[in-house]
């Protein structure tokens, strides 16, 4: 049966004209739905998680997406599967980074790329970086924590040992580019190099693909890790875990893993840049007469002196009581913003007391709004 091209757009539930943001949003939704941590023991959910991750791996990369839409590259025919989609055929090593360096040799440019080939032996390529998200409570973000992650990644195929060829066979040198991975075309004084149309920039041809990985040399799997999240991260912080990305091709070093933190809101504290802010309600008498009030900190509570005549919105600062700064550079401040709590409904006794207070208060605070205009007319 002929190999069929998987519909990656259908797997992610988006249209072919979907924007990058729509693709990312759909991936996040499906990844959360089928994540192994929330579907423990469900092999079907884990396989669906791999499919979604593999589809996103292609459609989130502009060059891979273009090649997929054109029907070119190693993934054009579904990674060697027949009649369906094998997520194991889609790994960091399956695409060879064929469009990452248009003018390099062998498509290994970019970060950690291989550069031009020498002879017929491909040079080592650094593994692809990975990115995942972790959900934290506000307090975990402040204090730091250890998080358990399940990261979709690829590992070297054990059947072909990463060569992509059926055991007992080996990849052959591409007859078009002679192992260089690029084709050169002369235009006047210049020569333009493009990825080889025959081997898609790999420099080799796999005549008899490995039945396990479909010729990619990699298997899709779930890597389970425990990582330390440092104290002081915010929503959207990126924590780098060195060497925990995709495996490198041809003996290259692995890529890195970037963990993006998603921090839940706190009902009390707001994280604003280097500072933490807290709203402190005051009664009308406390604002007028002054008071000593107890306020929360990130490490307990403290007493704060409120000056007489404090206005609504006044901010008072406690130095060094805020969130830890990343890199161990001390702590930020806490800003306490005083808001005067004015009751909506008054009892008859309260109303009489307010009326008596109003009689003793002198001046009209709005008079200055009109004083300038009156002087101008004169």
From TrEMBL:
Residues holding Zn(2+) 2: 174, 177, 196, 199
Keyword terms: Chaperone, Cytoplasm, DNA replication, Metal-binding, Repeat, Stress response, Zinc, Zinc-finger
Cofactor dependency: Zn(2+)
Free-text domain note: The J domain is necessary and sufficient to stimulate DnaK ATPase activity. Zinc center 1 plays an important role in the autonomous, DnaK-independent chaperone activity of DnaJ. Zinc center 2 is essential for interaction with DnaK and for DnaJ activity.
Subunit details: Homodimer.
General function of this protein: Participates actively in the response to hyperosmotic and heat shock by preventing the aggregation of stress-denatured proteins and by disaggregating proteins, also in an autonomous, DnaK-independent fashion. Unfolded proteins bind initially to DnaJ; upon interaction with the DnaJ-bound protein, DnaK hydrolyzes its bound ATP, resulting in the formation of a stable complex. GrpE releases ADP from DnaK; ATP binding to DnaK triggers the release of the substrate protein, thus completing the reaction cycle.
Annotated protein name in UniProt: Chaperone protein DnaJ
């Amino acid at each position: 049966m002929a190999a069929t091209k998987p519909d990656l757009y259908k797997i992610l539930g988006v249209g072919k004209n979907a924007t990058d943001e729509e693709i990312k949003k759909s991936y996040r939704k499906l990844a959360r739905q089928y994540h192994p941590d929330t579907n423990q023991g469900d092999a079907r959910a884990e396989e669906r998680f791999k499919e979604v991750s593999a589809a996103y791996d292609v459609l989130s990369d502009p060059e891979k997406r273009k090649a997929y839409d054109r029907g070119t590259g190693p993934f054009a025919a579904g990674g060697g599967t027949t009649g369906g989609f094998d997520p194991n055929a889609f790994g960091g090593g399956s695409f060879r980074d064929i469009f990452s360096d248009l003018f390099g040799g062998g498509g290994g440019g970019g970060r950690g790329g291989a550069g031009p080939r020498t002879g017929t032996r491909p040079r080592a390529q650094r593994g692809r970086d990975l990115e995942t998200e972790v959900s934290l409570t506000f307090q975990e973000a402040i204090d730091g924590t250890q998080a358990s992650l399940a990261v979709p990644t690829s590992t070297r195929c054990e059947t072909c040992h990463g060569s992509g060829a059926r055991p007992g066979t080996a990849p052959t040198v591409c007859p078009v580019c002679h192992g260089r991975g690029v084709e050169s075309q002369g235009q006047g004084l210049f020569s333009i190099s493009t990825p080889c149309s025959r081997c898609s920039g790999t420099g080799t041809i796999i005549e008899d693909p490995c039945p396990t990985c479909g010729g990619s040399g990699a298997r899709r799997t779930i890597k389970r890790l425990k990582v330390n999240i440092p104290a002081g991260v915010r929503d959207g912080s990126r924590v780098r875990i060195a060497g925990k990305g995709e495996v490198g091709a041809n003996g290259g070093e692995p890529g890195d893993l970037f963990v993006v933190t998603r921090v839940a809101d706190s009902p009390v504290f707001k994280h604003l840049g280097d500072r933490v802010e807290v709203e402190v309600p005051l009664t009308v008498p406390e604002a007028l007469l002054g008071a000593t009030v107890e306020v929360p900190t990130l490490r307990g509570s403290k007493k704060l002196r409120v000056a007489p005549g404090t206005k609504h919105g006044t901010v008072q600062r406690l130095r060094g009581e805020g969130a830890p700064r990343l890199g161990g550079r001390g702590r930020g401040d806490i800003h306490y913003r005083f808001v005067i709590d004015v009751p909506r409904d008054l009892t008859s006794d309260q109303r009489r007391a307010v009326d008596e207070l109003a009689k003793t208060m002198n001046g009209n605070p709005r008079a200055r709004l009109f004083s300038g205009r009156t002087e101008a007319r004169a």
